[in-house]
Amino acid sequence: xxxTQTIAVYNVNNNQFNNIYIEKNENDTCRFLTDVKVxxxxxxxxxxxxxxxxxxxxxxxxxxxxxxxxxxxxxxDAMLHFNSSTTEQLIRNYNPSIIYPKMxxxxxAVKRPYDNAFDIDGDxxxxxxxxxxxxxxxxxxxxxxxWTTDAPNSxxxxxxxxxxGYEIAGA
Length: 171
Prior knowledge:
This protein is mainly beta. It has two helices and 19 strands. Helix 1 (138-146) links the parallel strand 18 and strand 19 (155-157).
């Protein structure tokens, strides 16, 4: 087992950070005791430490990088909120065994989850006027079966290799 470092923020800059980079020993954990806003990137070092957000919301304006052997621990109503309106957000999952908390996507910038499949324990929440776009492969079939919304025209899929060009953007 490893050690745990606690981040406790007492309303300094409204719990806002430019970037958070976590580099602990391989089995150590960095625990958040409050909701936190990261204007830039939230990153773990490769094979160095875990993040425990408990039941808090982490709002991320930049990219998320979860590297191999790093884990994202959470309980209850924990949420990752990606909110950029200016810069594409990369949500990089290098560890396919992570179970993510619910995710919320707001802001007009593209949100691009990739590198491995995402196992999400909760809802994926998007703005009412958002449009999900996916490329060929199994996602279009899964999206068609599971997508439930009251908003018309809320997803755009490329089935097979239909030459719509989404296989490039969705890769």
